[in-house]
Design brief:
single chain, 182 residues, 8 helices, mainly alpha
């Protein structure tokens, strides 16, 4: 079973390294980031990963009220996820990331539920921000594009924000490796 410590370390490391890259290579990062909200490759990859993850979660759920419908639900959600890659092409990258963030938030909250340290609320709060952002970008995916355009619009701002985000990611790695262990 995956632990809160592992989840925190992996998320912090990935987040930190992405932002170190962004601070070190602002022009390359800018080019990628500006294309991301409409990227078919990124969007379909995230949607298919999220679909598989969601189907795993539904299959693992033990709610008796849905037991007789579980196979129908799994099939329907699977078709919906795969069909999204063919029929939902507008801002698919934004929507794929939004769905992924919602599932990631569930993982963080589920694994962090029984951690004793009040510092767990750093990750839990961040997960709730993902829930808000995930719902917002699902409904209004152009908001992701607007946020990215502001974020990467100025190299100095991009470097500063990326540095702050990288520091936050590495603080999470430290918390996961020390405080949340055990």
């Amino acid at each position: 079973m995956i632990t809160f410590s592992t989840v925190t370390i992996v998320i912090g490391l990935v987040y930190g390294l992405i932002n170190v890259y962004a601070a070190a290579n602002p022009e390359q990062y800018r080019q990628f980031a500006l294309k991301a909200p409409r990227s078919m490759t990124l969007g379909c990859t995230l949607i298919l990963i999220s679909t598989a993850w969601f189907l795993y979660n539904v299959n693992a759920e033990k709610i008796a009220d849905f037991a007789s419908y579980k196979k129908l639900m799994l099939g329907g959600f699977g078709i919906l996820g795969v069909g999204s890659c063919f029929y939902l092409k507008d801002h698919i990258g934004a929507r794929g990331l939004a769905i992924f963030l919602l599932l990631l938030a569930k993982l963080v909250c589920d694994t962090g539920r029984w951690v004793e340290s009040p510092l767990r609320l750093i990750m839990i709060t961040w997960a709730y921000v993902w829930v808000f952002v995930g719902m917002w970008w699902t409904v209004s995916p152009y908001r992701m594009r607007d946020w990215i355009e502001w974020n990467v619009g100025d190299s100095g701002r991009l470097r500063l924000l990326s540095g702050i985000r990288a520091l936050f990611g590495f603080i999470l790695v430290g918390l996961g490796a020390t405080v949340f262990r055990g």
